[in-house]
TrEMBL record, chains A, B, C, D:
It is a multi-pass membrane protein. The keyword ATP-binding does not apply. Its main location: membrane. It comes from Apibacter muscae. One of its GO terms (cellular component) is voltage-gated potassium channel complex. This is Ion transporter.
Amino acid sequence: MNGSLKWKYELHEIIFESDTVKGKIFDIILLFFISLSTLIIMLESVSKINNEIGFWLYILDWWVTISFTIEYFLRLISVKNRWKYMTSFYGLIDLLTIIPTYLSIFFIQSHYLAIIRIFRLFRVFKILKLANYIDESNTMLITLKNSKRKIFVFLYFILLITLILGALMYVIEGENFSSIPQSMYWAIVTLTTVGYGDIAPHTVLGKIIASGIMILGYSIISVPAGLLSVEYRRNKIYKQNTQVCRYCMAENHEVDAIYCKRCGHLLNENLNTTDNPE
Amino acid sequence: MNGSLKWKYELHEIIFESDTVKGKIFDIILLFFISLSTLIIMLESVSKINNEIGFWLYILDWWVTISFTIEYFLRLISVKNRWKYMTSFYGLIDLLTIIPTYLSIFFIQSHYLAIIRIFRLFRVFKILKLANYIDESNTMLITLKNSKRKIFVFLYFILLITLILGALMYVIEGENFSSIPQSMYWAIVTLTTVGYGDIAPHTVLGKIIASGIMILGYSIISVPAGLLSVEYRRNKIYKQNTQVCRYCMAENHEVDAIYCKRCGHLLNENLNTTDNPE
Amino acid sequence: MNGSLKWKYELHEIIFESDTVKGKIFDIILLFFISLSTLIIMLESVSKINNEIGFWLYILDWWVTISFTIEYFLRLISVKNRWKYMTSFYGLIDLLTIIPTYLSIFFIQSHYLAIIRIFRLFRVFKILKLANYIDESNTMLITLKNSKRKIFVFLYFILLITLILGALMYVIEGENFSSIPQSMYWAIVTLTTVGYGDIAPHTVLGKIIASGIMILGYSIISVPAGLLSVEYRRNKIYKQNTQVCRYCMAENHEVDAIYCKRCGHLLNENLNTTDNPE
Amino acid sequence: MNGSLKWKYELHEIIFESDTVKGKIFDIILLFFISLSTLIIMLESVSKINNEIGFWLYILDWWVTISFTIEYFLRLISVKNRWKYMTSFYGLIDLLTIIPTYLSIFFIQSHYLAIIRIFRLFRVFKILKLANYIDESNTMLITLKNSKRKIFVFLYFILLITLILGALMYVIEGENFSSIPQSMYWAIVTLTTVGYGDIAPHTVLGKIIASGIMILGYSIISVPAGLLSVEYRRNKIYKQNTQVCRYCMAENHEVDAIYCKRCGHLLNENLNTTDNPE
C-alpha cells in the first residue's frame, strides 16, 4: 500500500465509517452542519427574521454549501467506484442539496429550489445508523410490501366514499360545497376527524349526512393500523422461530428457545449443546 | 356450434372474462372510460372550468355515454340469461349510469341525476377482481354480520348520548345551540373529535360538559374497532383449522389443536405423536 | 285463581313480558310512543317548527303523556310489590318522565324540565332486551369496575397535564387564553384532537408547546382503550375456561372443550361422557 | 428513647406515614389544602373573579402558604437526614411551591412565578400512594425506557415529515403559510387530526397535499400505541413467570413454560407430570 492509497483509505475511514475517533468527530461535525443548514432554511422563510439578519444567513448558507461541496469531492476521491457512489441514494442527496445555492447566482428567483436543501436531513438516518439499530424496520418494510394490495384497496375505498359523499353533499349543500373536488376535500377533512371548519354543512340533510361520515370515520379509524398490525405480527412470529417440537408438536417457541417449553425435548437435534439433560 | 353462437361466445369471453389478450385489452379500455367519465363529472362541477371548456366536456360525456350504451347492448347480446344480467347488481349499475345523459335532453335541470354516473366507479371492483384477491373480504363480511347487534347497540348508545348531552347543552348554552337537533349535531362533531368550531360552547358549565364529552369520545375511540377485531380474530381462527373430527364430527377446533376437544380422538391420524393417550 | 287475579296476571303478562302475541304488540306500541315522544321534544326545540305547528305538538305531547300515565297506573296495578316497582330504576324513569308535562300547567317556564322526558329512551333497552342479548355487557361492567382505579389515575393524569399546560399557556399567550380554566379547556380541546379553533396559540413559544400537546394527545389516544382491553380480555378468558389439563398442564382451553387439545386426556374427570375414547 | 426523640418519631409517623389515625387525618387535611391552593390559583387567573374577591383570595393564599411553610419545617425537623429530604423530588416540590408567595412581597409582577404553586398537585400522587397501587406503573416505566430509541425515531420521523411537507406547503400556498415554521405548525395540527382551521390550504394543489397528510395522520394514529403495547406485553409476560432454572440459571421463561427452554430441566420440580422426558 503506497502513500496515496493509504491517504485515500484513511479518508474513507473518516468519512464513511465511524469506528475511529476521527470518524466520530467527522460525524458530529456533519450533524452540526446539517442542523445549521436546516435552521438557515427555516429562518430565511420567516420574512421578519430575513429582513433583519438575511445577509448573515446568506453568508452562513454559502459557508455551509461550500463545506458540503468540499465534503462531496472528498467522498468522490475516497471511494473506489465513483459512479456507484454518485448514483446511490445518498450520493444523489449529497449532490442535489448543494446545487440550489449555486443556481441562486444565475437565477434570482430560486426560492423554490432552496427547499431541496432540506433533504440533507435524510443523511441523519445514515449518520446515526438508525436503520441498523431498529431491528423492526426490516419487518416493517416486509409488512408494508405484503399489505400493498390491502392498502391500495383501503385507499380506493376512501376515494370511492369521498367521491360519492362529496358528490351528494355538492348537490345538497351548494354554497361552500362549490364543486365536487371541493366537497371531496371536505369529506376527507371530516372522515379523518381533522375538521378545519372552513367548510361546514348548513342544511339539515347535510348535517345528518355529515354526522354519518363522522361516525364512519370515527369507527374505521383503526382499520389501517389493524391491517398492518395483523400482517406485522405474522412476519414477526415467522421471523422469530418456526420450529415445531418433533415430540409434542408444540409451536410458537420463543426465538431463543432450545428445548420445547411443553415436553422438554430438544427442538433442533442437530445442535449438540453441552448442558443437555438427556 | 354454428357461427352465430361462436361469435356470441367470443364476445362473452372478451367482455366478461379477462384471461384472453382481447379480454384484457377490453378491461383496460373500460378502466380508461370509467376514469374519464369520473373526471368529466368532477370537472363539470367546477364552475370556472365548466365556463371555459364546458362544451368539450359535454361532447366527451356524450361520447362516453354512447360507448357505455353500446357496451350495455353487447353485454345483453352475449349473455344467455338476459333478465338475470339486467337484474344483477352490475347490470343495474350499467343501466342506471347511462340513463342520466339521455334524460338531460328532455330535462334541462338534470343536475342532480348526473351524479348517478359516479356509480360507474363500483365496476372497478369487478374489473380488477379486487374482491377475489383479498381473502379477508369474506371474513370481514361474516364479522360485520355477526357483530350486527353489537354495532346497532353501539350506534343506539351514541344516539342516546348525543340526545341527552345535546338536550342538556341546548338548555345550558342557548345561542349557537339553537335547537336540540343542532345540539346533537354539535355533540357528534365533538364526540368523534372532528371539532369544526362553527358551534362551540361559551358558558363555563357548557365548557365543562364539552370537556367531558371530548374525554369520553377520546376514550371510546377504539371501541368499535375493538368490537370488530375480537369477532374478526375469532372468525379468522375458525377459518384456519378446517379439520373435522372423524369420530364425533365436531368442528371449529383451534389452529394448534391436535386432539378433538370433544371426544379426545386424534384429529389428523397421519401424525404419529409419541405422547398419544390411546 | 279468581277473576280479578287472573285479569291482573294477564295484564302483567302483556305489560312486563313479551312472549305472548299481545305482549309483543304492547311492546311495539310502546316503542312507537317513545319514538313519538322523543320526536316531539326535538321538534319543539326548533323555534321555526315550534312557531308553525307548536300547537299540534302540544296536543300530541299531552296525548303521549296521558297514555304513559295510564300505562304507569296499569303497571302499578299489575305488579305484586308496588313499592319495589316504584323505587326500581325503570319505575323511577316511568314516573319522572310523565311529571314535566303536568308541571307545565302550573309553571309557564318549564322549558328545562321538559328535557327530562328524553330519559324515556332508556326504556328501549328494556323493551328490546338488549342487555340480555349482548353477553359482553356483563364482562364489560366487570372490566370497568376492575379498572376503576386505572381510569381514575388516567383522568387525574389528564387533569394534571391540562392544569400545568393550561397555566403555562396562560402565562405565555395571554389574549385568548384569558384565564387558567379557559386555557385548561383549550388544552383538553387540543389533547383530545378535537381542535375547535376558537382558541388557538399565536406566539411562537405557544405554538411549539401546542405542537407538543398535539403529539402527546395523538400518542396516548389508545391508552384508555388499551387499559380496558387488557383487563377485558383477562375477564373474558377467565370466564371461558379455567381448566388446566392434569396430564400436560396445558391451559387456555376453549369454553366448550372436554378433552385437552394438547394430549387428548379428559379435562374434567368427574364428567363421564358416553363417547370416551379411553 | 427520650422524650424529644419520641416526639420527633411520632411527628414523622403523622407526616410521612398514613397507617395511624392521626396520619390519615393529616393526609386528608393536606389533600384539602392542595385542592384549595389549586382552586385559588385558578380563580385568581379569571380577571372577573379576581376583581370581585381578589382580596379574599390573597388572604386565603397567604394562609395556605404559611400552613405549607410550617409543614415544610415540621418535615425538616422530623426527618433524620435533612439534606437528603431537601434534595429529594418531593422535598424540592415542597420548597419551590411556597417561595412564590413570599417573593410576591418584593416583586409586584410575580405573575409568572405564581404558576409554580400548581406543582403542589404532584404531591397528590404521593399522598394517595397511587404509584404503589398501580402495579402497571413499573412495567410502564420499563416499557418507556426500552422503547426510548423507537420513540426518538418516531418523533424524528414526525419532524422530518412536517419539515418536508411544511416547506412544500410554504412554497405552494404562501398567504397563511407565511413561513416554514408556521407551515410546520400547520402540518402538526393536521397530522395529529386536531385541525384548528386558523390556517387552511386554499389552492388546489395545497388541498391535495393536505388530504394526503390527513390520510397519513389518520393511518399512523395507532403506531405509537402499537410500539408501546408490543414492548409492554413482552415486559408483562417476562414479569409474570419469575421462575429461574435451577440448573442453568436461565430467566425470562414464558408464563406457560414447564421446562427450561435453555437446558430442558423441569422448572418447578414439585410438579410431577406424566410425560416427563427424563
